[in-house]
Write a structure and sequence with these properties.
heterodimer, A: 218 residues, mainly alpha, 4 strands, 4% strand, B: 156 residues, alpha+beta, DNA polymerase, domain 1, 2 domains, 6 helices, 5 strands
Chain lengths: 218, 156
């Protein structure tokens, strides 16, 4: 009994050491898991940042904008981004017959609201009103003029939130798929298409933006 | 074909028509409301203007399904007795020559007077620039709109 008792007393420190060792292993394991999780989370965040990040490449950016510009100044875009308050018409971008006015909200005035003639879809036939559900010009307080702008002026305007409808990078990228923007590639009978396909335009648009949205020097 | 519910000049109608039929065709061919005229057929002249929920739309390019369950007012419904201030003014000044465009002119002018009860010459020109008159009665139209504004306000 004495021996046994003494023996038990002598074994107690070993039990404590063993328990501490197990605890240390568990804690190490948990810390490793936590560290791995944190590492995964950081990687995901970094991926997202990289995905939205601007990789500054002025040559690539400016080259892409020259393609973008060719579309923006095509009649399908510029006709609703006039320098004055009357929209333009036709492939020669003449003043809209009947001289409808922009109005405060860009949707016309009085008897001459855009949707009084422009339907939610193109009206069949040539020389008929083209249409899209939200047919309008930019509003009077942010005219977003394309007509007469040089590539540099237009690039700087597009990147200025006080002149682009308060759009950030994400909104600008999304704008390439705006219904009214995409109408430009389905303009109805008798109207020429922009010089690039919508896919080519969107690719150039995103390339320009994601490489620094540089404004050309001219 | 589709069943379309319409409210025209306060009267309800239920018609089986192709939903892409222009409102003008329904007015003239189905309901015999022939005061609204066919001019160009491409929304360029204004002869076919009617009110759709108060807006001066061109009925020649407005598909009937867009008018479903909305309020349509034609020249026949702008007043009960043909005595809208614009109709009175038109008669007093003897505006029409051939008369073909006049219902569209009056329907557009009615929206103008509702929005701007006392319009200037510039207001009139901006609002009426989409209504063409081949007889060139523009000066009488402008004069009649001023007179109608006075009648509407009880000053004449």
């Amino acid at each position: 009994m004495r021996y046994n008792t003494r023996h038990k007393k002598e074994k107690r420190p070993y039990n404590i050491v063993a328990a501490l060792a197990v605890l240390a292993i568990i804690m190490t394991f948990m810390v490793t898991i936590a560290a791995n999780s944190r590492s995964t989370a950081l990687r995901a965040t970094e991926d997202e940042i990289i995905d939205d990040a601007v990789k500054r490449d002025s040559v690539k950016s400016v080259a892409a904008f020259s393609k973008v510009y060719s579309v923006l100044i095509s009649p399908r875009c510029v006709n609703c981004h006039p320098a004055g308050d009357v929209p333009l018409q036709g492939d020669d971008s003449h003043l809209h017959t009947m001289f409808p006015q922009r109005g405060k909200d860009g949707k016309g005035i009085l008897t001459m609201k855009c949707t009084n003639c422009h339907q939610p879809e193109n009206t069949p036939g040539t020389h008929t009103p083209p249409g899209s559900p939200n047919w309008h010009l930019p509003p009077a307080d942010m005219k977003m003029v394309f007509e007469g702008k040089s590539p540099r002026e237009l690039a700087k305007q597009i990147m200025d939130p006080t002149k682009n409808g308060n759009k950030d990078m994400k909104a600008l990228i999304a704008h390439a798929d705006d219904e009214l923007v995409k109408w430009g590639w389905q303009p109805g009978e008798g109207r020429t298409l922009p010089p690039l396909s919508h896919r080519e335009f969107k690719e150039a648009w995103i390339t320009w933006l994601k490489n620094g949205a540089y404004a050309p020097t001219n | 074909m589709a069943t379309i519910n319409l409210k025209i000049n306060g009267n309800k109608h239920r018609l089986d028509v192709d939903p892409s039929t222009p409102l003008l065709w329904v007015l003239r061919e189905h309901l015999n409301l022939v005061g609204t005229k066919y001019g160009c057929g491409v929304a360029a002249c204004g002869a076919c203007v009617v009110h759709l929920d108060g807006e001066a739309v061109r009925s020649c390019v407005t598909k009937i399904n867009r008018a479903a369950d909305k309020e349509v007012v034609t020249i026949e419904g702008i007043s009960e007795k043909g005595d809208h201030p614009l109709q009175q003014a038109w008669e007093q000044i003897d505006v029409p020559q051939c008369g073909y465009c006049q219902s569209g002119q009056i329907m557009s002018a009615a929206v103008l007077l509702r929005e701007i009860p006392n319009p200037t010459d510039e207001d009139i020109d901006l609002a009426m620039s989409g209504n063409i008159c081949r007889c060139g009665t523009y000066l009488r139209i402008r004069k009649a709109i001023h007179l109608a504004a006075e009648i509407q306000q009880g000053t004449k």
